[in-house]
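Q: Please design a sequence for this.
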């Protein structure tokens, strides 16, 4: 994948969409107008979070990777909270009485928990590897001799 991905903006937009979905649910709109859109948005967020994590997994040398992994983990946390809120909400738009939707949301929540754990583990792995990859001042001098 030779694309340049703007992680910060993508994660920011995801966080805003998560907030928008929560606000939409809280306002109690008519389910026949908004339930399908909310579910589509939740599926979109899940898919994009999955894609971003996969990209960060394979690009170990990405600048600010640890920070991006932390931001992604935070976005996953917000997503998990959104799904939990939606599953327990008893307003107009509620998946409580729609068994397939409820099961799908539980599955998405579990997937998100796994991705959040994976992002946290990658961040910890990078932290432990950082100590090994520091270049000493003697090595820098040796490398710069040619210049």
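A: Design:
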């Amino acid at each position: 994948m030779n694309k340049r991905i703007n992680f910060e903006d993508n994660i920011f937009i995801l966080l805003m969409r998560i907030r928008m979905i929560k606000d939409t649910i809280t306002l109690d709109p008519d389910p026949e107008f908004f339930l399908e859109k909310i579910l589509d948005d939740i599926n979109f967020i899940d898919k994009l979070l999955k894609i971003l994590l996969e990209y960060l997994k394979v690009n170990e040398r990405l600048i600010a990777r640890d920070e991006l992994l932390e931001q992604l983990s935070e976005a996953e946390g917000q997503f998990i909270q959104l799904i939990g809120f939606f599953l327990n909400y008893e307003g107009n738009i509620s998946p409580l009485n729609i068994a397939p939707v409820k099961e799908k949301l539980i599955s998405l929540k579990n997937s998100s928990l796994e991705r959040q754990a994976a992002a946290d583990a990658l961040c910890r792995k990078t932290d432990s590897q950082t100590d090994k990859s520091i270049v000493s001042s003697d090595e820098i001098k040796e490398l710069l001799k040619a210049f």
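Q: Thanks. Anything notable?
A: Residues 7-144 form one domain. The chain has one domain: 7-144.
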